[in-house]
Structures are given as C-alpha cells and as structure tokens.
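Write out the bound-state structure for adenosine-5'-triphosphate.
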Amino acid sequence: MFGRPAPAELYHFSDRLALKESVQAIELRELTKDFPLMERGRYLRAVDGLTLRIPENSVFGLLGPNGSGKSTTIRMLLGLSEPSRGEIRIFGASPQEAEARRRVGYLPDAPYYHKFLTGRELLRFFGKLLGMSRSELERRAEELLAQFGLADAMDRKLGAYSKGMLQRLGFAQALLGDPDILVLDEPTAGVDPVGAAEVGDFVRGLREQGKTVLLCSHLLTQVQDLCDAVGIMNKGRLLASGSIDELLGVGGDARFAIEGLTGSELGEVARFAQEKGGDLVPLGQNLEDLFRSLVSKDDQRGGEA
Amino acid sequence: MRLFLLLAVSGIVSLVGGLYFQEFNLGSSELRFIADFGFGAMTLLGSIVTVVATVQLLYGEIEHRTILPILSKPVSRGEFLLGKLLGAWLTICSFIGILTLALLAALWIRQWQMPDLGEEALLEQGAVSSSGVLLFALMQCFRLMVLASVTAFFSAYASSSLFAVFMGFFVWVIGQLRGSLDAQWGEGIGQSLLKTLTLLIPDFRIFDLGAYAFGEAEASLVSLLGLVLYAVVYAALYGSLAAVVLKNREF
Ligand SMILES: Nc1ncnc2c1ncn2[C@@H]1O[C@H](COP(=O)(O)OP(=O)(O)OP(=O)(O)O)[C@@H](O)[C@H]1O
Ligand SMILES: [Mg+2]
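---
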C-alpha cells in the first residue's frame, strides 16, 4: 500500500523470516473484541480483525485516536480480557499461560497501584507475585528505584507520589521481572517534555538490551524517530502498518497533495518553491500528517457508509 | 489499616462493656451474661467485619483496577482469589482472637472481683468455662470462613461494592434464619423443593455453640469435626464459584 521495499530488501527480509520463524515476539491474528451494550443484542466492536506481527528486539508503536482500541488490544495481549475472536501469541504461547506472562512487563494506562503502600513495598509485592527470591528482589527493587530517580521517595506512600513519580514507579514495576517484552500503554502520559525525552532514551536502551517493546503514544514526533514499525488504528481497525520508512515512502513513491497538474507544471511549481527559498515536501514525510489524513479519510468513509 | 483500628476499638469496647456491667450486681448469672454479650459481639461484629473486609479486599481490587497489574503477572486468577480469601480469613481470625481475649479478660476480672461467691457457688450457678469460650471462637472462625467465601463470590460478580456488601449481609441473615425456617415448614413437594433450594445457603446457626461454654452440652469430637467439614465444603463450593466467575470477568 505504501512504497514497496526494493526486491533486494524483500529477499533479505524473507531470509530473516525463514531463519527466525519462531521469534515473533508478539503475533495477533484476526483479533476482535466486542463489548456488549446496554441494549440487548447490540455490541460495541472495540477491536476489529486486528492482525499484527512484532518481531523480537524491535520497537512497535500502536497509534490511534482516543477510543480506537489500543488499550483494549493491550489488555487482551496480557490475558486481562478475553478476545471475542482471533488469536494471540507471545513467543508462540497464549497469554492465558502464566509462563507467557512472565516474559511480559506491563505499564498500565493509569497508575493502578495500592495507595497505602510505599514504592518499595509495591515492588516487593509484585516481586513476590513473580516468585523472586527475597535477596534478589531487594537488590533489584533498590536498583530500579534508584534508576528511576525514586531513591529518596521509595519509603513514602504512593498516595503522596506525583503523577510523574507514579509513572516512573510503573516503569520500575514493569521491569522488575526482567521481561523480554515490554508493553507500555502511554508511557509519556502526564510526563513533562524532559521526562518524555527520557522515556524515549529509555526505550532505545531497552532495544539495545535486546528487548521487544510495544508502546501506545500520542506523541507522534517521538514515535516517528523511536519506533522501528508502527500500526495506525481507528475505530478498532488497523488502517496501516509497517516500518516507518515504508509508511512514509522515503526513497519510494513520495506523494504530494497537489492534483491535476502535468509533469512540467509540477516541475515549475517545485522550481518556483525553490526560487522562493522553499521546498516541496512529500506529504508522507511526517507521521503526524499521515496519521491525520488516514484517520480523517477513514472517518469520512465511515460517515458515508 | 483502618480495619485494624476498627478491630482494636471494638475489642476494647466489648472489654469495657463487659466491665461496665459490674455496676449491676446480677450475682453469678452475671458471668453468663457477660459471656452471652461477648458471643453476641463476636457473631455480629465478626459478620460485619467479614463482609466488609472481603468486599474491600476483593471487590476493592476490581473497583480500583489494582487487579490489572497483578493479573498481568504470572499469577492465575484462582491463585489471586485464594490469596485474597486467606488474607480475609486471617483478618477475621485475628479479629475474633482479639474479641476472645477481651471476653476472657472480662470474665476473669469479674470472677476475681466476686470473692464473696465461693468456688462451689460459681460452679453451681452457671460458671463459664474458658475452653467453651475458645471453642465458640474457633467455630466462629469457621462460620466466618464460609461467609467470607460467599461474599467473595458476590464480590467477583458485582459491579458495585454496595451490591457485594448487601448480598453478603443478605446471605448472612438468611443463613442465620434458615434453621428456624426449616423447622416451621411442613411437608409437600413445593416445600421439599424450597428446602433443597435452601441447601444452597449454609445454615449459620449450627455454629453457635454457646451452650458448651455454659456446661449445658458436651462437645463431641465427631460433631465438631462434622461442623468443620460442613464449613470447609461450603467455603470450597462458594470459593470455586467465585473462581469461575472471576475467570470469566473482564478487566
Ligand atoms: N470494559 C469495557 N466495557 C465496554 N466498553 C469498553 C470497555 N473498555 C473499552 N471499551 C470501549 O472500547 C473502545 C476502545 O477503548 P480503548 O480504551 O481501547 O481505547 P484507546 O485506544 O486506548 O483510547 P485512549 O487513547 O483514549 O487511551 C472505546 O469505545 C471504549 O469505550
Ligand atoms: Mg488507552
């Protein structure tokens, strides 16, 4: 749909697939979720036939406007919600299996933690759920709390934590069991710009450690230079997915929003723009523009239907 | 934590309540009165604490969605439920423990304040055996274990804490009245059907072994074990139902 990769690249890609057939970190097949509504027999389709493959050691951005089904997808991925249809595989296993969940760290979309615990107690509690030994747990908890700048606050109650502190505690909690996959539902929500940049660095660090990251975010500029691949959802359906380069058509068929001109006329337009010190920038260059045009087109189509 | 404050306060209240009655001189039946009062407090406050604690522990997690990060860990929903039930039961048992200590202390102090009554008189006129008190408390723990798992079942199903609390109290009241209802019903197909239905609700009255403490009945090991078994069966039944409901619940 968007700029095909060159044949050489294609072969390369399939070679890798053949070699690493078993190392899709996450696979979603025709995933669908219906929520029953108050009226009998009617339902809301929050996720609609979603098919995705996220290879190991990559960063995948799941994008979409509010209510497009991102968090619902993630909840199904963690076995918190049962799909109405379709299949989920985490390293080939179902998320209903506890051992599959052991390999996944989850940052929820809001800090759903017990307010009466301190930061350290929360990590201890989760560490016990992960079956960690006491000494390892203590060491790892202190290390993570220090890493996320909570060393001073770790013996204070979570009720007194700020939004950003809770978010950082969420990261510590997600990393506690040293998972291979991290699922981050809006890691930059409620975080200041400096913090958001730190989150970006942190995710890059995870990739360097060989981890796989699935994240939801509304900061498209950050997603564009952070993620290896993205999927754009609207109303539960996947509108587009692929690597950033594929989607933005870099080096391929760049598209412009000028219509009905001949080639020479277009050339004149480009020359004119350059004479004036400007440039014609292909539309797809920017993830945000692509996102907006895809979603608004999809909304229009939905309105007509 | 607030719950423990409540525990402590009600324990002390019953202790003070027990001592307060030293103002009235009811003679030796006074000890019996104090014991009855203590047993009542255990049954009543214990049931309230059980329902509230179970709803708080289980439905509270669902309501505040703190269950989401917990279940995303390698913990099955059954294990989660079992942990919660054990936690609730431990709370209940420590509560009953506090009340029992308070009651024994009240009895002991009162006994000590009545030197005019000789040992013999005490024995004659309704002495309260402390082993009977302990037995009563132990059976309350089992009774409340059943009530906790019934409440857990409704908590797993509920979409508001009010519903769960209400259903917990409802089952408690029905369970307490069941025995007397059974006795009043005559024969007939409709009645037998109703009787079978009431089997769904455990009979809580059979756990009230106050009579043993007053030396009016002898405890037989077999009947006690039967009672414990009865409690375990009902607790397991409602615990499993709660697990099934929780397994199919969306978060
Ligand atoms: N438990 C639920 N019961 C009923 N409907 C639900 C439930 N959870 C989500 N939905 C609906 O599913 C749709 C998708 O919600 P979801 O939370 O997945 O969106 P999202 O993409 O994460 O949005 P946001 O960017 O705001 O976080 C919404 O219309 C929402 O109302
Ligand atoms: Mg969301």
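---
Chain B touches chain A through 17 residues (CB under 8 Å).
Residues 2-247 of chain B form one domain.
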